[in-house]
């Protein structure tokens, strides 16, 4: 009998976290690694949020919170959904979790039965596929390319639907492509779903505020999609709070209740100090954190300009999040410094070893022709990293 379950043995290690760990390890050996692998703002959590957490400690918030989150936090989330997305939810439709990642794991756990298919437009965020598989679901990848700005078309969606399709999971702004679906594009996808009333949508909007074109659109805004969309969001990205671990969903009551039940057996709810701090974060206008978004935009333009100068890098223009996802298949089959590059993983490893720059292979996101570069790093780091990559490839 195996010590470990088939479940964990069949699970891939999170490539983003693995690359971050590898970069840390190499740094520990004295190597000057520039980390462009992890999607994590390099800003500190704003002081007004930190102050709220300190206040919560002093106010003795030290007991279990309600499993699905403090009432005041749910109210702040409801206010946020109304203010930023024009979505109306009631408290029984909100569940606060230990990060959006746990929100996603809850959804999978409460909705997927063995053999249910989950459509994942590629590239998708690294953990979607394994969370689905962990719950005995079948990820159905829909390949997209730069030609459609890495967005799934209505025709592709239609073609991917089978009698076993349970859900579609996607992020907009997208990690890793930075693509942002417009309201019209979402409506066109919703039109396809009109014919398939039993298919649900997980709309991961965690990069909502990191949007360079303005105008974030939510799938749940359409009346015919509201009940069958689970809107996932969190504070990790826009508020530079990755380590605080707070995410949340707005969903139909039935789904929210099920997620609450799941958490009740697994975590007992999210960290109470972090929850108190997030009440303050969400009650503020998003303009309070715009200085970070403005800086990300400067960096996006910077990195696109620099990459443009390297032979064999093809990119879309990311309209949100803080990643570029260049197609580097130009290098496949080539031998550089005695190392043959056959795929994106080889390429990412080559860059790590020869340029000391950590990126993530596109294979982890369902696209083996690309790598993901996070530009949540200083302008100096970005300039130095791309210079090194260029040298290593020349
Ligand atoms: N969804 C997407 C698209 C992400 O990039 C991330 C990044 N961590 C998450 C969900 C999970 O975020 P967290 O668990 O930190 O809230
Ligand atoms: N979402 C980030 C990323 O894609 C953080 C890492 C993770 O949660 O896997 O890099």
From TrEMBL:
Family membership noted in the UniProt record: Belongs to the class-I pyridoxal-phosphate-dependent aminotransferase family.
Keywords: Aminotransferase, Pyridoxal phosphate, Transferase
Database matches in InterPro entries: Aminotransferase_I/II_large, AspAT/PAT-like, NHTrfase_class1_PyrdxlP-BS, PyrdxlP-dep_Trfase, PyrdxlP-dep_Trfase_major, PyrdxlP-dep_Trfase_small
Annotated GO biological process: amino acid metabolic process
GO molecular function, one term: transaminase activity
SUPFAM superfamilies associated with the record: PLP-dependent transferases
Signal sequence interval, chain numbering: none
Transmembrane segments: none
Cofactor: pyridoxal 5'-phosphate
Lineage: Bacteria, Pseudomonadati, Bacteroidota, Flavobacteriia, Flavobacteriales
Record bears the keyword Transferase: yes
CDD domains: AAT_like (cd00609)
Pfam entry (one): Aminotran_1_2
Aminotransferase class I/classII large domain segment(s): 31-389
Enzyme superclass (EC): transferase
Documented EC number(s): 2.6.1.-
Superkingdom, natural source: Bacteria
Record-given protein name: Aminotransferase
Taxonomic source organism: Snuella sedimenti
